[in-house]
Structures are given as structure tokens and as C-alpha cells.
Amino acid sequence: MTQKVQRVIALLLLCAGLAALAAYLWHGRADGNAAAAPETVILATNTSYVGMCPIIAAQQQGYFLRAGIAAQIQNHNSGKSALEAALQGRAHLGTVADIPIMFAVLDKVPVSVVATFFRAERDHGIVGRRDRGVTGPGSLKGKRIGVTLGTSAHFVLNAVLNRQLLSARDVTLHNLKAEEFAGALQRGDVDAVSSWEPFLDGLATQLGSNATVFYAEDLYEIPYNIAGSREYVVSHPETIKKVLRAVVEGARYCREEPAAAQAMTAAVMKSTATKWRELWPSYRFSVGLDQALLLALEEEARWAMSNQLVATVPMPNYLGAIDLQPLKAVAPAAVTVIH
């Protein structure tokens, strides 16, 4: 065999070896991709609410995908509706404030909270008409007030009244949906509305110089949470951990990149309200589970029972509605609930 033939054979063997190596590497990479395929999670939330910034950031900045989650955002008009979607199996998880969780536990619905990711004090308040004599909290006696019964706005209204030594009997409540506030206030069907941002800012803008606005910043701090059915949370611990890792990054983005986070949130909210930009420094974008949530749920349960929104029952153990384990695995220092 000549040297030339030997060189050709050697070259062919080398090429064959390289081809086999490439095929092996490609096969391994393909298998790796298959093993790391992102898991679909349907997240029911309200993207018109500024508190959803960590969720929006986790989606738009790629934190969900990086954590192995293909998040599908299911939009709702309220946290109550979002939680119902999760509990009824139309979504895997929902974002919700504390009041709907409180009611779910009182109704013996098996719900599990896995994290709080947003808190705000100047988020709830009351907008009133000056021409109807609404000038401040003390002027609410005898007024007609629009509110969605059984919500955090209802709880805040009672807290405002209590501070003025008034009760619900001293006012006339009109049970309205959030989208009905503007028309009722404009027509004069009600003298004031108890609500939350961005509705407060929108209603104040609508009334212009005729508006009186006062916040419940020292009465109520809203905690927004991620929750789901107990069955789903218990049976998908690794999924929950992935979701929490992404939301932790989303919250960090909202804290550390305020200008970019505001622009991103505004584009998704599609709202003309602007007050939330001014309030942004007061917002707490941070993932955790703390004792304040338990205390709030118990206080709200007493309120619901005393206002006959539910039957009077022994105080439930709200710790049973909080699953600490996923967040303890992801960010142990973020869990400060006494247990």
C-alpha cells in the first residue's frame, strides 16, 4: 500500500471519527434539551395592577424560562378572580391579596400560600366629591359610598370609619364592581368610593378639582401573594421552587432597575393612571413569608365575622394555609414566620 493511499485512508478514518463524535455530542445535547424542557405553568394574575411588576419582569426578562418554567399569564380583573381560577383548576397558581385568602380559609377551602412578593401602604384609599361634602375621613358620616363588598377596599373603609368612631351603619354602602366606580361617582349615585390604585388615581383625575383623596397608609398594608390549591402545591414542590426563583429575580429587577421596570410595567398595564410612578419608592418588591401575613389574616377574619360577612366560627389556624417549604429551600432567610 502506497503512502498516498495510507494518507487517504487515515483521512477518511479521521473524518468518520469526527462525524461520530459530532453525532454523539449532538445526541447528548438534544437529550439534554429534552430533559430541560421548560414546564408549563398557568399563572392567573392581574397585569393592570402595578404590584405585578415582579411577575411581569419574570416573564419579560426571561427569568421564568431560565428557571425552567414556560409561564402562561392568564389575566384577571382582581386577585379574588385569580385565586378562584387556581382553586378551580383553570390555572396552576394565582396572585392575590390577603382578603380572598382569609375568606377561603374560613370557607374551609384548601388553599396554600407560597410567598408574598409585593407590599404597599399607599395603595388603598377613598376618593370623594367635594360638592357632596366629602373633605376628609371625618366627613363620611351619612354619605353614600361605593365599594366592592368582601374585598380589601371594604376592609379599609371599615378601618377608616372605625378611626372616626363611625360604623357601617353611619354610611350607606353601594356594592359596586371596580369598573362601575367611575360612572357611579360621575353621575352622583355615590358621594365617595373606597378602592385601590390605579382606580383611585383614575377617579381623582376624572373629578379634577372636585376630588378629595385620602389614603389608608397607616391603617392597611396590602400583601400580594402567590397561592394555589393545597393539592397542587404539595404535589409540585420542584415546580413551585422554580417559580419562586424566577419571581425572586423579578422582584430584584423591580427594585434595582426602577426606570426600566416602570417603563415595562406601564407598557403592560396600558393604563392612563400615573400616581403609581410617584408612589414607586414606597412599594416593597420582595419575596418572603413573614408573621405580619398571619396577623393580618386573623385580624381580617375577626372583621369578616363581626360584620356578618361569614358565620361566626372559632379562629382557624392560618399557618396551615401557608406552605413554608418551597421558599425555605429557595431563600431560607426570606421565611420569618414563627412556626
From TrEMBL:
Pfam families to which the protein is assigned, alphabetical: NMT1
Keywords in alphabetical order: Signal
Residues annotated as signal peptide: 1-22
Domain of life: Bacteria
Domain SsuA/THI5-like: from-to ranges: 53-261
UniProt keyword annotation of Signal present: yes
PANTHER family: ALIPHATIC SULFONATES-BINDING PROTEIN-RELATED
Protein name per the record: NitT/TauT family transport system substrate-binding protein
Organism the protein comes from: Pseudoduganella namucuonensis
